[in-house]
Design brief:
The structure holds 2 protein chains of 2 kinds.
Chain A: E1 2-6, E2 9-13, H1 21-28, E3 47-50, E4 53-56, E5 69-71, H2 83-90, H3 100-113, H4 119-126, H5 136-150
Parallel strand pairs in A: 1-5
Antiparallel strand pairs in A: 1-2, 3-4, 3-5
Helix pairs in contact in A: 2-5
Chain B: H1 2-14, E1 48-53, E2 56-59, E3 64-68, H2 77-89, E4 96-100, H3 117-144, E5 151-154, E6 157-160, E7 166-168, H4 169-177, H5 207-212, E8 227-232, E9 240-245, H6 247-250, E10 256-260, E11 274-279, H7 282-291, E12 293-297, H8 306-317, E13 322-327, H9 330-336, E14 339-347, E15 359-365, E16 368-373, H10 378-389, E17 396-400, H11 414-426, E18 430-433, H12 436-441, E19 449-457, E20 463-471, H13 488-491, E21 505-510, H14 526-544, H15 548-556, H16 583-597, E22 607-616, E23 619-630, E24 633-644, H17 651-670, E25 676-677, E26 680-681, E27 699-704, H18 722-734
Parallel strand pairs in B: 3-4, 8-18, 16-17, 20-21, 24-27
Antiparallel strand pairs in B: 1-2, 2-3, 5-6, 6-7, 8-11, 9-12, 10-11, 13-21, 14-19, 15-16, 15-18, 19-20, 22-23, 23-24, 25-26
Helix pairs in contact in B: 2-3, 3-4, 10-11, 14-15, 14-18
Classes of the chains: A alpha+beta, B alpha+beta.
Chain lengths: 151, 749
């Protein structure tokens, strides 16, 4: 049994400790907001927060979450109104939407650390998140907007 | 029900589809165990009081339900088509629910590719809304004992002008349902100035779900008792299992192993075969697949090597080909030309690589198959699943989830048939998961291509002759073992429809055999054709010592509808009389883009501007790029893109598609290459199949041309001119010409 918190709730799972957190969340905890895109930390579709830090759930063994706080897109804000989520709506960022959970979780972690990032800081911090629809330009704008709104 | 049938027949006639197969959807599943976002077809349901069209119903509480029969993969047509209908209906957008249709021929084509959703369904959806609006007006007028002409529809109500009396749509639904459906010809559509939703930037309906993680894609389907399968597919197309040791996999708890049937004949949409592991969860399935020990019999394509094949294509491209379109006499004109120039271009295989790899969930039970999948083509999925299972089409129901991208890959339902076959064998619901590696190794690849171009220039720098020979393995090879040359349809994707004013022209094709499954990828053959054409014009301008823009303008020539004589131009399924190749529109987007980019301005050393324009999917798109080269490395700083797509529905989504086209185009220009060695695909993941990332993203400047023309394509036409604009800019910056993609191969990125 591995025990940790997901979005504030205590959970205990009986799975292979090597199972990536991604599959534990998706297959065993029914939290499908965190996405699979590559399985090898190339694309960032699976970014979640582990004790507030952005990590790639596809290469994070579930054992590593033991005793820690996991936050997924479903728990980023109670009412879906985190400044990043609001900015995403304002800029109409998503196209297909599939990578957006990971993009939003990466952006939220960036803003928690750097409240007013420059374009260069956004570039560096978001370079690990792939979007095939090509929403990058709007992501950049939305991060600036969220930064201003959370002031 | 008679009422419904009349209307459906009418709509079918309107979309050019016969009513022969009219079977009203009898599916009445209420599926509490699937995600709510998968709400499906409206069953014959008493609460839907008024359903005058297959696309629309109105309940007594006034809720308007619009059926989305097209797949939503990021292009926004789910929102766009509903907006078209609701606008004509004069309904309140906030009281509209959109439900995703199952695959069913009653909707007309659901094949969501070719940039067709708006261009083919704008008119039928307007008519569906307008017919319903007229019936609601008629019902209200009858109730009040006044003439319908004295009433109008406004914001979900019918209003009697003289008395100010009002009745809501919900209150009128039952009465409207009892009326005969009027002929479409008797209905007046709204004039453009009365449209409230069409032309406005409307947020997509799934926006909220997408930013909160609630949006449900194919991989998010969860069924009770569902098992997860991964498949070890033959590394080479046409290969089969020679030996299998599955003991280690089968020793894992809950794991079962199945050998899939070997496909017969041309690949089509059949599963590729191989060995499946079926497990309680995805991680176990991944471990179990790794534990399989398989040797393969590679079959006839085991020697496929893309580097060697490139030589084959290029040799063919330098030999006389089969003429597809000939004007004047190119050989004669070349002999008499002041200068001759020739060039060869090569572009490799590409993979669509949507963010969500292929995946599907199927449940075969009680003589039926239900499947949930991110498919661009639920009707083709229905047919293939039926064929794989030996079922009738009517025994198969395809539920369409949101698609995490498609780009053509998810038009091919092989992965859905895999899930169906496995569910039948296992006797439980099965979800087939494709890893990214599976997606890259076992796809339907964009063709690799070699093109040979020759031109003659007159002493005053005019192009007097143009020969263009294209050689690539045809998509037809996927469906017919006999296919050996590009089809007429493929030749019409940006080559046979060359719009230039050149007195001597020869467009030819050469033969090429396929050794992988060839399929369509966003923009299809237009990508390599536009690359060669756009680059070659830039080369000719350089040879002639001319400004490239002025040569583009001269080649486009005076505003006219291009006359192709006896040559049949596929023209994206539309008659040239309705959608001509209009050089005036081509010229306008070119000039607008040149203006936006500041064409002709001085650029710093190491910087350059490039430009290109291309018509595809009935739309006209020009792209200019500004690049900087530092220490031999390219950076794209700005891209200007202008589209004339005729009437557009949602300008924000058209802009989004142009932004996305720039990114997609840059991805393939910079990095796109799928290679094969010993018959197997080399690329494994986004590490060796790189795609553009945020830090490489230029500033993107989109201009939409206002137009009253017929709606044309949006999803694809933005991609083709991107690459030549960038490589021409690279030439302007460095004097180095790129004739081979991707740019990473020569180290530019």
């Amino acid at each position: 049994m591995i025990a940790f918190h997901v979005n504030g709730e205590a959970v205990r799972v009986d799975v292979d400790p090597e199972m990536p957190l991604l599959w534990c969340l998706r297959d065993h905890l029914q939290l499908t907001g965190t996405k699979y895109g590559c399985g090898e930390a190339y694309c960032g579709a699976c970014v979640i927060h582990l004790d507030g830090e952005a990590v790639r759930a596809c290469v994070t063994p579930v054992a590593k979450a033991s005793g820690r706080q996991v936050t997924t897109i479903e728990g980023l804000s109670e009412h879906g109104d985190h400044p990043v989520q609001r900015a995403w709506r304002e800029e109409n960022v998503p196209q297909c939407g599939y990578c957006q959970s990971g993009q939003i979780m990466s952006a939220a972690a960036l803003l928690a650390e750097v409240p007013a990032p420059t374009d260069d800081q956004i570039d560096q911090s978001m370079a690990g998140n792939v979007c095939r629809c090509g929403t990058y330009d709007r992501i950049r704008k939305a991060i600036h907007r969220a930064s201003q709104e959370q002031g | 029900m008679a009422l419904e049938k009349i209307s459906r027949r009418e709509l079918m006639r309107r979309v050019g589809w016969t009513a022969g197969g009219l079977t009203l959807g009898a599916w009445a599943g209420n599926l509490p165990w699937t995600p709510a976002a998968l709400a499906q077809d409206v069953p014959a349901d008493a609460s839907q009081a008024f359903d005058p069209s297959v696309y629309l119903s109105i309940a007594e509480d006034g809720t308007v339900t619009v059926i989305c029969h097209r797949s939503e993969m990021g292009q926004g047509s789910k929102t766009g088509l509903a907006a078209v209908l609701v606008d004509e209906l004069e309904a309140d957008w906030d009281r509209v629910e959109i439900r995703q249709a199952i695959g069913d021929e009653k909707y007309g084509s659901q094949n969501t590719d070719g940039s067709t959703s708006i261009r083919n369904f704008y008119q039928p959806f307007r008519e569906a809304g307008a017919v319903a609006r007229q019936m609601l007006i008629t019902a209200a007028a009858a109730q009040w004992g006044v003439s319908p002409q004295s009433c109008r529809a406004e914001a979900h109500q019918v209003v009697h002008r003289a008395s100010g009396r009002r009745l809501g749509y919900g209150d009128l639904a039952r009465a409207a349902a009892a009326l005969e459906i009027p002929e479409v010809e008797t209905i007046t559509l709204k004039p453009a100035f009365e449209q409230r939703l069409v032309g406005q930037p409307l947020p997509i309906v799934d926006l909220d779900d997408m930013v909160t993680g609630r949006a449900s894609f194919g991989l998010d389907v969860r069924l009770p008792g569902m098992k997860v399968a991964l498949i070890a597919r033959p590394p080479v197309v046409g290969g089969r299992v020679a030996t299998l040791d599955s003991s280690a996999a089968e020793a894992m708890a809950g794991v079962q192993v199945y050998t899939l049937p070997v496909p017969e004949g041309a690949p089509g949409f059949q599963p590729l075969g191989g060995v499946a592991v079926v497990a309680p969860d995805t991680w176990t399935a991944m471990r179990a697949r790794r534990a399989l020990v398989i040797t393969w019999d590679d079959g006839p394509h085991g020697g496929y090597d893309t580097e060697a094949y490139r030589q084959t294509l290029e040799v063919t491209a330098r030999q006389p080909g089969e003429p597809v379109r000939v004007v004047g006499n190119v050989d004669h004109a070349l002999e008499g030309a002041d200068q001759r120039h020739e060039a060869d271009y090569y572009a490799p295989h590409l993979a669509q690589a949507p963010m969500e790899p292929p995946c599907a969930t199927a449940h075969v039970h009680d003589g039926i198959c239900e499947a949930w999948a991110p498919t661009q083509n639920p009707q083709a999925a229905q047919s293939q699943v039926a064929a794989t299972l030996g079922f009738e089409v009517a025994q198969v129901t395809i539920h369409v989830t949101l698609l995490g991208g498609g780009f053509g890959r998810k038009s091919k339902p092989d992965f859905i048939a895999e899930a169906a076959w496995l569910s039948q064998e296992v006797g439980a619901p099965v979800q087939v998961v494709w890893t990214r590696g599976d997606d890259l190794r076992h796809g339907y690849l964009h063709a690799n291509s070699a093109q040979h171009l020759e031109a003659g220039l007159s002493a005053d720098g005019k192009v007097v002759a143009w020969r263009h020979r294209t050689v690539f393995p045809s998509i037809s090879t996927t469906f017919s073992a006999d296919a050996k040359a590009p089809s007429n349809g493929e030749m019409g994707l940006g080559l046979a429809d060359l719009p230039f004013d050149i007195p001597n022209l020869a467009i030819e094709r050469g033969e090429a055999r396929a050794h992988v499954r060839i399929g369509w990828l966003r923009s299809v053959c237009n990508i390599y054709h536009a690359f060669a054409i756009g680059s070659f014009i830039d080369e000719l301008a350089d040879r002639a010592g001319r400004d490239p823009l002025s040569l583009w303008q001269e080649l486009i020539g005076p505003a006219r509808e291009v006359d192709f004589g006896e040559v049949e131009i596929s023209n994206y399924g539309q008659p040239l009389t309705v959608h001509p190749v209009d050089t005036g529109r081509l010229r306008r987007v070119l000039d607008a883009t040149a203006e936006d980019a500041g064409w002709g301005r001085d650029m710093a050393t190491g910087s350059g501007l490039g430009i290109s324009v291309h018509r595809s999917f009935l739309s006209y798109v020009a792209v200019a790029a500004a690049v900087t080269v530092t220490a031999g490395k390219l950076r794209v700083d700005d891209v200007w893109i202008t589209i004339d797509c005729g009437t557009y529905v949602n300008p924000d989504r058209v802009r989004a598609q142009m932004e996305g086209s720039v990114i997609y185009g840059l991805s393939l220009a910079f990095y796109g290459a799928i290679e094969a060695k010993d018959g197997a695909i080399v690329q494994q993941n986004f590490g060796d199949y790189r795609v553009l990332r945020l830090h490489e993203t230029p500033r993107i400047h989109v201009r939409l041309m206002p137009s009253q023309g017929l709606p044309a394509g949006v999803g694809e036409p933005g991609v083709p001119p991107v690459t030549p604009a960038v490589t021409n800019a690279l030439f302007a910056a460095t004097g180095e010409r790129v004739r081979e993609l991707p740019l990473s191969k020569a180290g530019w990125v």
